[in-house]
Write a structure and sequence with these properties.
alpha+beta; 10% strand; 702 residues; 12 strands; 12 helices; Beta-Lactamase; Helix Hairpins
């Protein structure tokens, strides 16, 4: 009895522990949920505040950069608003620019002056071609009055520089530009000195996504966030797209240290650049993390206090149950004396439990009395049930034996039907195969017949073409012969022209000789006229005219000689070409004769092929008729075989139905047999249970 009490005490302690554990877990879960919800709400609020705050910071720093750039543009007013820029010539402006080197601000390495031809002159005396530079195109082609370009490598110093460019405007037209060239490191130092919190930094992108300024100096002018982001930083490309589109906003992405960063970005006014301010997530949420840690510690302390208080109160509340435990143990011991009752004076919930238990024991006493009365009747019924079960099992065994005998006969009949059906199906398959072969043969014969007919038509067409070719070759041979004859006539005429050309050359030589002699006579006449004095002046004029005509004749004779030589050379070339043409006509004539003989042979072969094709066509027609007769016979065999198959199928179906019915009967009989066996076993168990119940009921004291 002492052991039972100890076991019950342990169970009560376990119950208290479970209740306390449940309360503790509930408190911890509630506090954790409260901390998480509070943290998320605070994070959302913090994120909104950070977006606004860092947006203001980015805009402020962007404004600083913009004002710095405006200051550089303002420094250029000294040059573009000078009298020399407004009224002087380009050469005067060049000389004036060199003399103003002392007025250049310290950030500018040098000042450039350029005209519309793209040739720039510096105040240090150097000459540069800038026609391909973006700032030149922006001022001189796009008509802008000021422009600042992305960092580029200077062609003068080799440094990374930025050009602060102003237009020289006269009468509303840009006639040139003046550009201040400064190293990009000056703006980079301003941006790199920007600090946001402990981990924040700033960077600037050009309009094409190129990094202009960044804490990672290896990226400056080398990394393009639109196309050159590294693996794992694809979100940087999306950010760059928004920045080069001159959007203002914020985004979360993985930063240069592979930690999540909050980035706020805005465009820089007066440029095509965009500036971004970045700060790590840990720094943004540092205050919230600290607050949540303190809340978690307070929640843990409060949970421990509440669990301790709840455990003490539960232990005090359950302690009065000890009395009830001892009373129930006393009732349960011995031979289950249901006449005993628990005496306890308590008006709380435990007292109500004891009163309910007494009522339950009284009701149980009445029930056990009635059960004892029904015990004898139940024993008699158990004996009758066992005898009936044994008789039923014997009848079921005999039914099963009969069902097995009928089933074996049906299985034997089904096997015979299956063999018959298999043989008929084999015949049907062979007939179907024969029909397919006949169909294929018929189709092949039809196709072959059509192909042969088409071939005969093609052969006929080829014969006609060969006839036309033979006729054409005859005409071609005749034309070639005529051409050869005409070529001979042309050769003879060319020989005559060659001889006449030689005669013309001889005549021209005679004319040239006569002109030479005439010139000599004119000279002699002029000499004689001079000797005659005044009397010979008229004769001198005539002699001079004769000399001029002689010189003209000599010149023309030389020209005619040159032309005749050219004509002779052309005639020689024509003679050579004519000889080659005659040889070609002769070769063509021979080839035409050989081809004509081949055409005649082809025509003879095609006539023989036409006759053979007609014989093949007649044989194919005969084969087609035989195939049709075989196909009709096969169709009749197939129809008869189909009728046999249908009858065998009906027999199979009937056999299968009978077999399935017998299987179902066998299954049902087996189930009945199993049920009978189970019923017999149950009957034995019922009988044993009735005896056990009787023994147990007899132990109750009522």
């Amino acid at each position: 009895m002492g052991e039972n009490a100890s076991s019950n005490t342990e169970k009560r302690k376990s119950l208290v522990f479970r209740l306390v554990l449940f309360v503790g877990i509930s408190i911890v879960c509630f506090n954790a949920l409260q901390i998480i919800v509070t943290g998320e709400i605070t994070k959302k609020s913090q994120l909104e505040d950070s977006a606004n705050d860092y947006g203001v910071v980015a805009a402020a720093y962007s404004q600083v950069i913009s004002e710095k750039i405006d200051a550089y543009f303002y420094a250029m007013n000294f040059y573009v608003n000078s009298d020399m820029a407004l009224e002087g010539t380009f050469d005067q402006m060049r000389q004036w620019l060199v003399s103003q080197e002392d007025h250049r601000i310290s950030e500018f390495d040098y000042i450039m002056l350029a005209g519309s031809d793209g040739i720039a002159y510096t105040d240090t005396g150097k000459r540069i071609d800038i026609s391909d530079r973006p700032y030149f195109k922006a001022i001189m082609q796009d008509g802008k009055t000021k422009f600042i370009d992305d960092p580029v490598v200077s062609r003068t110093t080799g440094q990374s520089v930025i050009h602060v460019t102003r237009a020289i405007v006269r009468n509303g037209k840009n006639i040139g530009l003046i550009s201040g060239v400064m190293q990009s490191k000056y703006l980079g130092e301003i941006i790199s000195n920007i600090k946001v919190g402990n981990t924040g930094y700033a960077f600037v992108l050009a309009d094409d996504g190129t990094v202009i300024s960044h804490p990672n100096r290896d990226w400056i002018n080398k990394r393009n966030f639109l196309t050159g982001y590294s693996e794992g930083h694809e979100d940087m490309g999306e950010l760059a797209k928004r920045m080069v589109s001159r959007e203002t906003g914020h985004a979360w992405l993985k930063g240069i240290y592979d930690e999540l960063e909050f980035i706020s970005f805005t465009p820089i006014e007066g440029t095509l650049w965009s500036m971004a301010v970045s700060i790590q997530q840990n720094e943004i949420y540092s205050t919230i993390s600290s607050m949540m840690g303190k809340m978690a510690l307070l929640s843990l302390i409060s949970a421990i206090l509440l669990v301790s208080i709840a455990g003490f109160l539960m232990y005090r509340a359950i302690k009065p149950l000890n009395t009830l435990d001892h009373a129930i143990t006393k009732i349960a011991s011995g031979n289950a004396d249901l006449t005993q009752r628990i005496e306890i004076n308590s008006n709380n919930e435990i007292g109500f439990v004891v009163k309910g238990f007494n009522k339950f024991v009284g009701k149980l006493q009445e029930i056990i009395s009635d059960v004892k009365t029904s015990k004898n009747e139940l024993s008699s019924a158990g004996e009758v049930l066992e005898e009936s079960t044994q008789n039923t099992a014997g009848a079921i065994t005999q039914i099963l034996a009969n069902i097995d005998s009928v089933r074996n006969q049906i299985v034997s009949q089904s096997s015979s039907v299956e063999e018959t059906a298999g043989a008929v199906n084999e015949i049907a398959s062979n007939i179907s195969s024969l029909e397919r072969m006949i169909e294929n043969q018929t189709a092949g014969v039809s196709q072959a017949s059509a192909a042969v007919e088409q071939m005969i038509g093609n052969i006929s067409s080829v014969n006609q073409s060969v006839d036309k070719m033979a006729s054409s070759f005859s005409e071609l041979q005749s034309d070639a012969q005529n051409g050869f004859s005409k070529q001979q006539i042309v050769n003879e005429q060319i020989e005559k022209i060659e001889k006449q050309s030689a005669m013309l050359q001889e005549a021209n030589a005679a004319i040239s000789s006569i002109a030479s002699q005439t010139n000599l006579l004119a000279m002699n006449a002029a000499i004689e006229a001079a000797h005659a004095g005044e009397a010979g002046k008229g004769f001198s004029v005539v002699a001079d005219e004769i000399r001029k005509l002689s010189e003209t004749s000599t010149s023309q004779s030389k020209t005619i000689g040159d032309q005749l030589n050219n004509i002779r050379e052309s005639i020689d070339e024509v003679v050579a070409s004519s000889a080659e043409s005659s040889s070609a006509f002769e070769s063509v004539s021979k080839k035409i004769k050989d081809t004509d003989q081949l055409v005649v042979q082809i025509k003879s072969a095609m006539e023989e092929q036409t006759e053979g094709s007609k014989q093949i066509n007649e044989a194919l027609h005969s084969m087609n008729d035989s195939s049709s007769e075989v196909r009709n016979a096969s169709s009749e065999m197939s129809a008869g075989n189909q009728a046999i198959l249908e009858e065998v199928k009906r027999l199979q179906d009937a056999t299968m139905v009978m077999k399935e019915s017998m299987d179902e009967m066998a299954i049902g009989a087996k189930k009945i047999n199993e049920t009978g066996a189970a019923l017999s076993e149950i009957s034995s168990k019922v009988k044993g249970s009735i005896s056990n119940i009787a023994d147990q009921i007899d132990r109750f004291k009522v």
